[in-house]
From TrEMBL:
Protein name, per record: RRM domain-containing protein
The organism of origin for this protein: Fistulina hepatica ATCC 64428
GO terms, molecular function: nucleic acid binding
InterPro entries cross-referenced by the UniProt entry: Nucleotide-bd_a/b_plait_sf (IPR012677), RBD_domain_sf (IPR035979)
Top-level division of the source organism's lineage: Eukaryota
Amino acid sequence: MGSGILRNCKVKLSWYRPKHTLLLNYRSSLDAKRVAERLNGITFRGHVVKARLQMPHLFQITSFTVILDEVPDDAEYMQALVRRAKSVSCTIPPCHTHSLESIPRLLDPFGPVDSYEELPLDKAKAKRVAFAQFSSPEAVVNAVKALNGQRQAVLADSPLWVEQIFSVKYVLPVRHFACIKEELDKLRDVHSNAKVRYYFDPNTPQQKATVRVYGPEAKMVARLKLRVEKLVRGE
């Protein structure tokens, strides 16, 4: 279980998952036009498809292109969408896999970073979330002031949000977590000024559940922390 100590040297970082543009190629303009009309506006695996026909050149007779805009950063999704479109050829762009390396580097100028934890990808959510802990409160203040809301080249010119928070983390055996999950969900749903979030790390030898309580107001986080700890103790 976690130490249960609230820390104010921590920040929450969030950013939109990058999106891509796919170019689908067809042998005839009629095929390309039909595909663009068929795909545009449909909902595919929870995402609205934005498709348009690239205007051909005056004397173009082969390789007509359909452009898919704002495609989610998900290789499996992109491959399935291309299969549905029955494209003659399409290059799947590489997904964004470098945030674990690039985001901490943005924090380096403000002081030593004791820990950095990027939460597992949730395909149902548009944003990625990470937590970082500095060695001093001053570093937190400076990082928030300089980075919050600023567009970053490493995120394809998308903004990065940096928020100072109070946070506590607990690591529980999966069976223990399963016994209190329903009550944790209730706490999560009724508290707005402090949040409860849990997730699993599939890379650990013995799978554990991580439960995190966090928020910008120490008093609210402390109250929720006490309620979570009662559940953890079985009270």
